[in-house]
Structures are given as C-alpha cells and as structure tokens.
TrEMBL record:
A GO biological-process term: carbohydrate metabolic process
Name the UniProt record assigns to this protein: Aldolase
Lineage of the organism: Bacteria, Pseudomonadati, Candidatus Hydrogenedentota, Candidatus Abyssobacteria
An annotated Gene Ontology molecular function: zinc ion binding
Domain of life: Bacteria
Pfam families from the UniProt entry: F_bP_aldolase (PF01116)
Length: 474
C-alpha cells in the first residue's frame, strides 16, 4: 500500500508530473505511462484530502483523463446485458460491489483479483444513501476506483453504477416535485462523474392497496420512465447508459411474475407513447427474501436468510424471454452463506449486489486498530442514539449503524498503516477470488471485449491545468 503525499502547492504537483504528462490541445498527453500509474494513489489522495480546492480538482481530472489515455475507459454494461437478453451469452452473474470505506485500497484489490481470474464484467457502485453517509460524491468515488485501476496495471472498461437512486416515499408525499428534482440532480451529477450505469428505484411507491399488479406498479413504472427519458437526454454521445428498474422494495414482500408483468406493461406503454425510439431498462431488481445488510441477532451475528431462488430464476427467465432484458437483479446478498453464491449463476441471475460483508471484513479484521474502532463506536453511541430501537442490543445497534462512520472517519481509515491495510486487503482478495469463482465470472474478459466497446468521453480540463502542466511541444 502506498504512503500518502499531500502537495503543498501547485508547484509541488508540477514537479511530480514533470516528464510524465503534459497538455496537448487541452487533452492530457501521458508520455510516461509507467510513472503516471505510480502516481495514481497520490493523485487520488490529493483529489480528496488536499485543502487546496484547485489541486483537488486538477488531481481528479488528471486521474480520469490520464486513465483514459492509458486505456482505461468508463463504460456502460448496456450492450452486454442486451446481448444476454438476446441469448448470446449466459451462465454467469455480474457482481455489483459497493465500497463504503477504504475505497481506493478495496478497489485495487478487486482489480487485482479480477485480472488474476480474467474476470470481465464487474460493477463498482454506490447507492444514493451511501453517497450521503460515506461522504463520497460520484466524482470522488469514480476517481478512487479509476485511480486503483491505474495503479493495478489494468486496461479495459470500468463500469461505475449509481445503485438505488431511490425515491424516498415520505419526502415524495411531502413534496413530490422536490424529491423528484433531487433525483434529477443526482442523476446529472452521476453522469458527469462517469456513472454510465444507473439503477432507478421507485419501488417505494408501489401501492399494494390497488386491485391488481398493473395498478400497483403504475407510479413506479411512470417515474422509471420519466427518469429513463431524462437519462437518455443527458447521456454522452456514443454511450447508452444501462438503466435498471425495480419492482419490489428490498425487505418487503417477495416479487412475482405478475408484479413484473404489471410493471413492464405500464413502462412499455409509456415508452411507446413518448414517440421517441429510446432504449429502455436492461435489467430488473426484485425482492426474494433478503434484507440490506442482513438481520443481526442479539449477539451481533447474522440470521440465516433463505433466498427464493425459484422466484429469482422465473423472473430472470421472463425478463429475458418476454422483455429482452438481461434478467433479474438480487440485492442484499453479501452476507448470505457461502454455499449460496453459486446458485445465482446456476439460476441465470443477471446481477447480484454485494456490500455489507466487505464493510464487516474491514471493521472486524484483527489488524484494525482497537482504539480507532472504540472511537468509532463511541461516536455512533452519541450521534446515532436516536436510531437505537427498543429491545435492541448494543451489538445489534453497532452492526446496523457502523456503516455511517465511514464518512466522518474517512481520513483516519484511509491513513491506516500500510501493514494494516495489507492484512485487510489480503482477506478481501481471498473473498473476491471466491465470489468471482462462485458467480462464474472467471475467464469472462472476452465478453467485455466483445460487447463493451471503449468510448473516450472528454472531460474539460480545469483552468489550472495549463499553468501546472504546460503545453506539449508538437
């Protein structure tokens, strides 16, 4: 793991970049790729923690533009998912991984494992709620992940995903325009930040009091359609953003084929009525019995959950054969028993979302400093006291709330000693190796090369770029 370096001023950054990169007609020219990749961690670190906002902005641009110059392209998984809907590929489940803390190091570990196993499709995602409590805006999250790709030696597509861009039912009821506008703003920010995969979740507005599934799913489908049109209007040229829909809120009743059909009937009518020939959603998230993060028992261990794989398989099949999508998406799966993961690929699940277990593996690692853990838990006792439910044990409370410490303690976690991060990431690498094998994505890099074509998306250089980098002599 790389040591931290904060550039004290633009001249210090300029010295670090000398004979490595320069500007050529407002485009970044990487003259020494090997040395540029070695600078990746320092650039990422400064893009987040440097107190000089101009240096932050320039480092963020350097990572993204430099990665593109080095053959690392932010990409959409849409074409691969459409190919799966046509039956041109099958037999695997795409891992969608949420990184809440230690983002660069965890992403670096994922790339290391993926390159070792010749893994193709992987989604790096963050949910609307996670953006809030981890204090990672889309551009920051993309910078950390892409920087990790640079440092790892990776070349190829990197798929960033907005997970659960979810309509808050209470806020929607209080002021629908305000809530929907907030998601419009988030979508625009995400696309600007390089998120070319976005999951819209209006399942919170499904009304089970309505007489049939089509009526129950009406608002859900209407809002998904509205956001689909917004995304299509904002997406970059030559890129079709992969959009996901959701028919069942995680933690509620299990989804049915009738739910899917009611939702898609509404959604397709809206698409057709718009008169615009735009691609629709490429996958559908469903509920099959899981809960985000799992259900902690009084001693802090996680209750066993039985996933309804029959329903998951049936919904995936219908979504492919009737609607041309990649299949169904499983949320809240990272804390499932290890012997369950191979079933997702066996049952042709399109995508599985994984988050909490990686968080647990950071906090619970024996190398994680006990004094920092104690400080974090004391913070939670004070700042999240109103979230402690009646009858909940301290272990249950900590388990459910400790995700919210990643934002306030972001720098302390990033600044963990190198040997501590090495031990944490060693265990994580073993976990990623296992998951990639179970989800049958080993040796699938040929699929990304076949279906996900690299597209360079130009990002305007900040005003300080010319002063720090100079112009390349041509």
């Amino acid at each position: 793991m790389t040591s931290t370096t904060l550039y004290k001023n633009p001249d210090a950054l300029k010295a670090a970049l000398k004979n490595v990169v320069s500007l050529s007609k407002e485009k970044l020219d990487v003259s020494n790729e090997q040395n540029f990749r070695k600078l990746a961690y320092a650039l990422v670190y400064n893009s987040i923690f440097n107190s000089d906002k101009d240096i932050q902005e320039l480092c963020r641009w350097l990572v993204r533009a430099g990665a593109d110059a080095c053959g690392i392209h932010l990409a959409s998984i849409h074409d691969l998912y459409m190919a799966r809907g046509r039956g041109e590929c099958s037999g695997f489940t795409v891992p969608a991984i949420n990184i809440r803390g230690l983002t660069y190091d965890v992403a670096h570990t994922i790339f290391k494992s993926a390159m070792k196993g010749k893994v193709g499709p992987v989604l790096f995602e963050i949910a609307r709620s996670e953006i809030g409590y981890t204090l990672q805006r889309p551009a920051e999250y993309t910078t950390a992940v892409v920087g990790a790709a640079l440092a790892s030696g990776y070349k190829g597509p990197v798929c960033m995903q907005g997970d659960h861009f979810q309509v808050n039912a209470k806020k929607y009821k209080a002021s629908s325009d305000t809530e929907l506008g907030a998601i419009h703003s988030l979508i625009e920010e995400a696309i600007t930040g390089g998120f070319f995969n976005i999951d819209i979740d209006a399942s919170t507005l499904v009304d089970l009091t309505k007489p049939n599934e089509e009526a129950q799913q009406e608002i859900n489908a209407a809002l998904t359609h509205e956001y689909t049109m917004f995304i299509r209007d904002k997406e970059p040229n030559s890129i079709t953003i992969s959009i996901g829909g959701e028919i069942g809120e995680v933690g509620t009743k299990n989804s049915t084929v009738e739910d899917l059909q009611g939702y898609m009937s509404n959604y397709k009518k809206k698409l057709e009525k718009s008169g615009k020939n735009v691609p629709g959603i490429s996958k559908i998230s469903v509920q099959t019995g899981t809960t985000h993060g799992g259900v902690p028992l009084p001693d802090g261990t996680i209750a066993k959950v039985k996933v309804d794989f029959d329903t998951l398989e049936k919904l995936s099949k219908v979504s492919r054969e009737k609607y041309g999508m990649a299949g169904a998406v499983q949320h809240g799966a990272s804390t499932l028993p290890e012997d369950a993961f191979h079933i997702f690929a066996d049952r042709e699940t399109a995508e599985v979302h994984l988050a909490t277990e990686f968080q647990n593996m950071i906090y619970d690692n024996a190398a994680f400093p006990a004094d920092l853990r104690q400080e974090i838990y004391a913070y939670l006792d004070k700042e999240c006291a109103d979230e402690k439910k009646e009858g909940q044990t301290q272990e249950q409370f900590i388990y459910k709330t400790r995700k919210k410490a990643f934002g306030p303690f972001k720098k302390q976690v990033w600044d963990l000693p190198a040997d501590v991060k090495t031990q944490i990431c060693s265990r994580l690498e073993t976990k990623f190796d296992f998951l990639f094998k179970q989800l049958a994505v080993l040796n699938t890099d040929s699929l990304t090369k076949k279906f996900i074509k690299p597209v360079s998306v130009t990002v305007a250089a900040p005003n300080t770029a010319g002063k720090v980098l100079g112009q390349a002599k041509k």
